[in-house]
Amino acid sequence: MKLYSRIIFPRLCDWVMSDPEMGKLRGEVLAGVEGEILEIGFGTGLNLAHYPSGVRRIATADPNPGMSKIARKRIADSGIAVDQRASGGEELPFEGGTFDCVVSTWTLCSIPEVGRAIGEIYRVLRPGGRFVFLEHGLGLDPKTQKWQRRLNPIQRLLGDGCRLDLDVPTVVGSQPFADVRFDWFEMERVPRTHGTMYRGVAVK
Ligand SMILES: C[S@@+](CC[C@H](N)C(=O)[O-])C[C@H]1O[C@@H](n2cnc3c(N)ncnc32)[C@H](O)[C@@H]1O
After folding, report:
1. pTM check: above 0.90
2. CATH, residue 79
C-alpha cells in the first residue's frame, strides 16, 4: 500500500470527516441500529460516538491499516468492543446470515468492486436484517454530473480511490432486498459534486 494511502490520507480523511454537519447525520442514521452489527469501511472510527448507548460491540471491515491505527485510539475511549478485520467489502470474512445490521457511511464510493461488496453485504445479513447507508453519490442534475465526471480523476487521487458519481440507489438495488427506502439531500456547506447524499435502509 502506498505511503499516501497508509499515512497521509487517513489523517486528512479523519480531519475532513470530523465535520459537525457530518456528525449530526451520523447520529441520525445510526439511531435505530441494534443487534449484531458490521460496519464496512470503518475508517478512523468516527461513527463510534454515534451508536446508540445499547450497542456494546460491533465488527468492522476496512482494508487500510492506516485508518485502523487511528481508529484504535477512538475504540479505546468508546466502551464498545470492536472486532476489527483488515478486509475489503468485496470479500467479508463472516458466515452468511450473521448480522442484524450492516452500516456504511461515506464508503461505497471508495470500494473498487462495489457491486461485489453489495453482494457480500446481502450475504452476511440475516433474513430481515438491515443495510443502513449514508453515502455521497451521483448528482441529480446534468450539470453536477458533468462536473463530477470532470473532477473524478483528481478526487480519486486525493480521496484514495473515491469516485464522485456513484449511482447509489442502482448499486444497492442490484441485490434482491425485500425493501429499499432512501431519501436524498444536499449537504449545507459542501458543493453538490461532493455533497449529494443518499441516506437509506435496505431490508433483506
Ligand atoms: C471516506 S472514508 C470513510 C470512513 C468512514 N466510513 C467514515 O464515515 O468516516 C472511506 C473508507 O473506505 C475504506 N475502503 C477503501 N476500500 C475499501 C474496500 N474495498 N472495502 C471496504 N472499505 C474500503 C477506506 O479505507 C476508508 O476507511
Report:
1. yes
2. 3.40.50.150
